[in-house]
Amino acid sequence: MILEFARFCGRTLNNPLACGFMAWCLVFVPILGMWAVHKYGWEHWEPFAKHEPHIETTGEHERSSVECDH
Asked: Is the overall model pTM greater than 0.70, yes or no?
């Protein structure tokens, strides 16, 4: 079973079309993900977590500890 998997991986990784498809996926999938994040307003964990519905913020600027010192 492991040997069959290794042979499959060897054939796939030595095939220029398969390597090209995998490289294309490495570029396209993150672009598609960022499109979905911006379109639907997801937080990076939101589609996978079970939590309360997203509550809109009041729009106040949250200041970091560095900004508060000055």
From this structure: no
Whether 51 maps to a domain, the answer reads no
- The owner of tokens 């490289």 is 23
Angle between helix axes 16-40 and 2-13 (nearest 10 degrees) is 90
Instruction: Look up the domain containing 9 and give its range.
Output: 1-43
pLDDT in tens, 12-40: 999 999 999 999 999 999 999 889 888 88
Domain membership of residue 66 (yes or no) is no
What per-residue string of b and e applies to 27-37 under the rule 16 or more CB within 10 Å gives b?
Answer: eeeeeeeeeee
Domain count, the chain: 1
Tell the residue number behind the tokens 């993150």, with chain if given. Answer: 30
